[in-house]
TrEMBL record:
The lineage of its organism: Bacteria, Pseudomonadati, Pseudomonadota, Gammaproteobacteria, Cardiobacteriales. This is Pyrimidine dimer DNA glycosylase/endonuclease V. It comes from Wohlfahrtiimonas larvae. InterPro entries: Pyr-dimer_DNA_glycosylase, T4_endonuc_V. Gene3D superfamilies: T4 endonuclease V. Pfam families: Pyr_excise.
Length: 131
């Protein structure tokens, strides 16, 4: 599977480029689960990780991913981006994969370090529109 971003920091902290990329990439995991009819390899890891094993780690955390996708989608809309909601409803069939994940401070620090390393030279931060 190609790189799939799953961050644990607040979507509000992401630059526009990272926000839009995660919004687009996160649904690869539930779509792959649906495509494989739930027959996917699961991770033995118990803590958030980056790089090899990152996608596998999240395969049984569909509740976390769905909640995260909702936050990402809303943040995109709040910033005025015209994004399409693409969470696959069929993913709800795989109830054994609908686990949550509680983010730790160590997870946040690891994620913030990676975000900092990969920050574009000229990141965009669209301000929230005022109602």
């Amino acid at each position: 599977m190609i790189m799939t971003r799953i961050n644990v920091i607040s979507p509000a902290e992401l630059c526009d480029q990272h926000l839009l990329a995660e919004h687009r990439e996160l649904t690869r995991i539930p779509n792959d689960i649906v495509k494989r009819k739930g027959n996917v390899v699961l991770s033995r890891e118990t803590a958030y990780l980056l790089g090899a094993g990152h996608v596998t780690f999240f395969r049984n955390k569909l509740k976390f991913l769905k909640d995260r996708y909702e936050l990402l989608h809303q943040e995109c809309l709040d910033r005025g981006f015209k994004v399409i909601y693409k969470w696959p409803d069929e993913a709800s069939e795989y109830v054994d994969l609908w686990q949550d994940y509680v983010v730790t401070q160590a997870d946040i620090l690891l994620n913030q370090k990676r975000i900092h390393e990969r920050m574009p030279e000229n990141p965009r931060f669209t301000l929230h529109r005022q109602a």
